[in-house]
């Protein structure tokens, strides 16, 4: 049996990086990336709360008359996106158990629900009745929801890549990080939308 010292002596190239036994380096990288994205959203929320609370010229009602936000449509969209988190989790657990049909079904449902969310948001923009020149409230609305929409688009791109690879026979119970990492990102997108929806549409 080759000892660790002998293996190290025969290793060529840079030294092998130390790895934590608790958190996979790829998962840790995704979590650190999400932390940076959370700070990005935090800067947008800072502007939002300034416009609504700290600004002495802030309107007494939100949004100011005669405008209104489509709360019901956004609520249905929220339910769709939250449900997609459960199908994403189902897909990941299925591939971990080696259940490929369930994995592909879960990924397909997740992708379709994410696409439905994004298309519904685009339709909402076309019929909301105001644009970015309608006031600070409109800039904040489009800024926060648009930033989130951009993240949904990135998430859909990742999910699409997972779907293509899945139908080509990739991933297994031993090799599923290609599913897990986009899944973590998708859960982040879902949670962030709950915060955006609660702050912009409900408060």
Q: What features would you describe in this structure?
A:
The protein is mostly helical. The chain has one domain (24-202): Cytochrome c oxidase, subunit III, four-helix bundle (Four Helix Bundle (Hemerythrin (Met), subunit A)). Helices cover 73% and strands 0% of the residues. The protein has six helices and no strands. It has helices at 4-9, 25-54, 71-96, 100-127, 136-167, 177-202. Helix 3 runs antiparallel to helix 4. The model has no long low-confidence stretch (mean pLDDT 86).
Give the secondary structure arrangement, pairings included.
Layout: H1 4-9, H2 25-54, H3 71-96, H4 100-127, H5 136-167, H6 177-202
Helix pairs in contact: 2-5, 2-6, 3-4, 3-6, 4-5, 5-6
| H and E string | HHHHHH
Gross morphology is elongated
Percent range for β-strand residues: under 5%
- Strand count, sense and closure of the main sheet? none
Tally of distinct domains:
1
| Cα gyration radius (Å) | 22 Å
- Overall mean pLDDT stands at 86
CATH class: Mainly Alpha
> Helicity level, as a percent range?
over 70%
**Count the strands?**
0
CATH architecture: Up-down Bundle
Structural class of the secondary elements?
Answer: mainly alpha
Q: Assembly state here?
A: single chain
Instruction: Enter the CATH topology name.
Output: Four Helix Bundle (Hemerythrin (Met), subunit A)
Give the full name of the CATH homologous superfamily. Cytochrome c oxidase, subunit III, four-helix bundle
Distance from N terminus to C terminus (CA atoms, Å) equals 66 Å
pLDDT < 50 runs, ≥5 residues: none
Task: Please give the count of helices.
Answer: 6
